Amino acid sequence: MTSTPLHLEHYLCDQWVPSLNRPQESSALLHAVHGHVVAHLNEDVVDVETAMHYARSIGNANLRVLSFQERGRMLKALALHLHKKKEDFYALSWATGATRNDSWIDIEGGIGNLFSYASLRKQFGDTPFALDGTGIPLSKEGSFVGHHILVPKQGVALHINAFNFPVWGMLEKVAVNWLAGVPAIVKPASATSYLTEAVVREIIASKILPPGAIQLICGPARNLLDHVDERDVITFTGSATTGQKLKTHPRVIANSVPFNMEADSLNSAILGPHVEPGDQEFNLFVKEVRKEMTVKCGQKCTAIRRIFVPKHLIDPVQEALISALSKTTLGDPQQEGVRMGALVNHAQKEEVLLRIAELKSEADCVYQNEASPVGASDELGAFLGPTLMRMDNPMKAIQCHEVEAFGPVSTLMPYDQLEDAIQLANMGKGSLCCSFVSHDENDVCKFVLEAAPMHGRILVLDRGCSNESTGHGSPLPLLVHGGPGRAGGGEEMGGMRGVRHYMQRTAIQGSPSMVSAITQSYQPGGHQVEANPHLFQQYFEDLTIGHTVTTAKHTVTEADIVNFANVSGDHFYAHVDETSLDGTIFTGRVAHGYYLLSKAAGLFVDPKKGPVLLNYGVESARFTKPVYPGATVGVRLTVKEKTAQEKRTPEDVAKGIVKFYVEMHDETGESVAIATILTMVKMRNQEN
Ligand code: NAP
Fold first, then answer.
1. Centroid of ligand 1 to alpha carbon of 169 (angstroms)
2. DSSP string, 550-570
3. Other C-beta atoms within 10 Å of 3: how many?
4. Average pLDDT over residues 551-580
5. In angstroms, what is the span from residue 352 Cα to ligand 1's centroid?
6. Would you state the pLDDT for residue 3?
7. What's this model's pTM, rounded to 2 decimal places?
């Protein structure tokens, strides 16, 4: 059962760095279940200054020149590689006290995050930088415009992680900074750093990342922040006490280093006031609370610490919860039937017992599973059975809203009215998430709008989503993870939102032509060059931003409007009944906006077969001026943006997405309709 202890190494400047010192008793990391030594930390002082310099000058320089598409493909390759190795990680994860299910959240959840951020590349262009929003007109004549751009920061993402998710905690963050074009230095929590180290070894072995993209510190590294500067970003996950200390480090303050903090929080679950025993929601509530108390032995930042139920239901809920918790078999996760493993180590168990004692100053312990662990011993393993506390006067409680016992511990409390439930949930002073379990839309809407300011995420759980709900405790790659106040005030992931944390947003001002050149996106009013041949006859590689087709003109007739009404079936009064226009802005029968767009296509399309494969959508169409019979319209079709596409199979046609800016104007030169159309265009070089 015991195996030779690992000797953890740092990975610095693209070298594995073993400890120069003999392993000490203090550096030993023990198996959570059986108590033997799993690994020895590398407690040598790290030359953080050199590591930071390497990350900025090598890692950053390698990553920031890659396009979002290249960085995204790199994440996908890495996710596929790690997925193949996942069983090795599961084997090691057992030492942290985790069950297979607990490890799945950590390992496959982390790899899933890499996949999600890999897919997110499709929302970005083919450039190393990103556009934020659209162009902003800043002058009357249109010769001065603005645009926000996002460029990769030129520093390093320094990740200081908590012990409870050694894999996910790293991958959920590095996926985002790599997609943004920034390298990482990862400092996992000492307690479980052997699992993080194993994953980093595979990352390095894969040779997928460029040099300098990742460095790892497997030891205390108390000098970690001594060399941060204005180019860097720090993310911290851990206790509020440590977070606050690090956030106020003089270098962080002096250099305005962004510090994203995810700290402990007193998350809650609330049973809606109109739920009754026997309702589906009653059972869903009990199941969710039990799950949150027992998964990862309650060592989850999102775990439910406070349980609020309508006063008249407190006894039935208590009974149902105790019955559910008593079915949880505790022990060695490798034994048949075991559903809950051990806390990460004895120090953590002592810590949780201390917190329970604090809670007991105002709450009663109504249940603690004290069964002996299956296949393990209480002396060697850090076991603690699920513990349910109860406090009957939560408005007066202090500890229940303050003390986080980071283990399988939660406190049951009653409330009178929905307003009280909202107030109680908010008494956590800022939480990562809460769950409101109810099928009553009025209660749900009121709760969510009043509780949202104090929460990073709210799960509304009812019969409508329960089959597919990912549950209270799961932060998801495309949703923001973080919370206000006590929860640290940070935000992670959230799809594109997360990427922006590692990029500098800069407002660019200038002429439309200059801003088009910088953004590689045509800005209205920018320089246009008449295309030759027609844009529809040019391959992807040959299309140039700003190149334009100016079409023939067409005079709109009443017959056009009548015909379009008949073809489309759109007989809206303003198009068909001239006598109905009193009180409208129209002075006559007006052409359909969709007619104008269709006519625009009729004017700008070159019908001969060519490189344009298909038109797959229209973005941001606007009808800017009414068009009446007699108006003469023409179109300018301009190349706006281009993004090359990957081939799915070697046989696939090599192609890219081209956005065209369509501007229809009338005989006065004023714009009557604008839109961006999306097309797929073949490449000349089919080897791409
Ligand atoms: P912790 O003791 O606060 O440690 C967090 C991290 O900070 C560890 O990597 C730790 O390294 C490091 N650290 C501590 N002092 C440092 C210093 N002076 N300089 C540089 N690094 C330093 O928290 P933990 O015990 O690992 O994690 C449990 C806590 O984290 C719980 O309270 C939980 O609620 C919270 N948590 C929050 C979230 C979230 O997303 N909000 C997620 C997970 C956990 P060492 O391990 O080497 O000391």
1. 11
2. EPP-EE--HHHHHHHHHHH--
3. 10
4. 96
5. 15
6. 77
7. 0.93
Please answer whether residues 330 and 371 qualify as being in contact, where contact means their C-beta atoms are separated by less than 8 angstroms.
Answer: yes
Contacts of 201 (CB under 8 A, 6+ apart): none
- Ordered by where they begin, the domains of the chain are 8-263 (3.40.605.10), 267-477 (3.40.309.10), 528-682 (3.10.129.10)
Task: Give the sign of the dihedral formed by CA 424, CA 348, CA 374, CA 378.
Answer: negative
> What one-character DSSP code corresponds to residue 660?
E
> Rounded distance, CA 645 to CA 642, Å?
10
pLDDT of residue 648: 87
3-state secondary structure 124-137: CCCCCCEEEEEEEE
Ligand 1 mutation target, pool 223, 301, 349, 402, most atoms within 8 A of CB? 301
Q: Does residue 456 sit in helix, strand or coil? A: strand
Residue-wise pLDDT tens digits, 312-353:
999 999 999 999 999 999 999 999 999 999 999 999 999 999
Per-residue pLDDT band for 25 (boundaries 50, 70, 90) equals confident
Give me the pLDDT at residue 685, please. 84
Average pLDDT over residues 94-99: 96
| SS3 at position 572 | coil
Separation of alpha carbons 404 and 401, rounded Å: 8
Residue 264 Cα to ligand 1 midpoint, Å, equals: 9
pLDDT value of position 686: 80
Q: Using an 8 Å Cβ cutoff, are 472 and 287 in contact? A: no
* Euclidean distance between CA atoms 380 and 35, whole angstroms: 5
Give nearest CA residue, ligand 1 atom 38. Answer: 301
Q: Please, which residues bridge with residue 374 across strands?
A: 331
The pLDDT, as a whole number, for residue 688 is 64
Asked if residues 332 and 33 have their Cβ atoms less than 8 Å apart, the reply is yes
Which pair of tokens denotes residue 454? Answer: 């104090």
- Mean pLDDT, rounded, of the chain: 95
Which residues, judged by CB distance below 6 Å to any ligand atom, belong to the binding site of ligand 1?
160-164, 187, 189-191, 220-222, 224, 237-239, 242, 246, 262-264, 301, 404, 406, 432, 487-488
Taking alpha carbons only, the member of 103, 66, 238, 230 closest to residue 159 is 238
Q: What is the dihedral of CA 243, 342, 19, 161, to 10 degrees?
A: -20
How far CA 411 is from CA of 73, 309, 402, 418, in Å, comes to 45, 11, 12, 19
What tokens does 566 get?
A: 């008949």
Cα–Cα–Cα angle for 556, 560, 562, nearest 5°?
Answer: 135
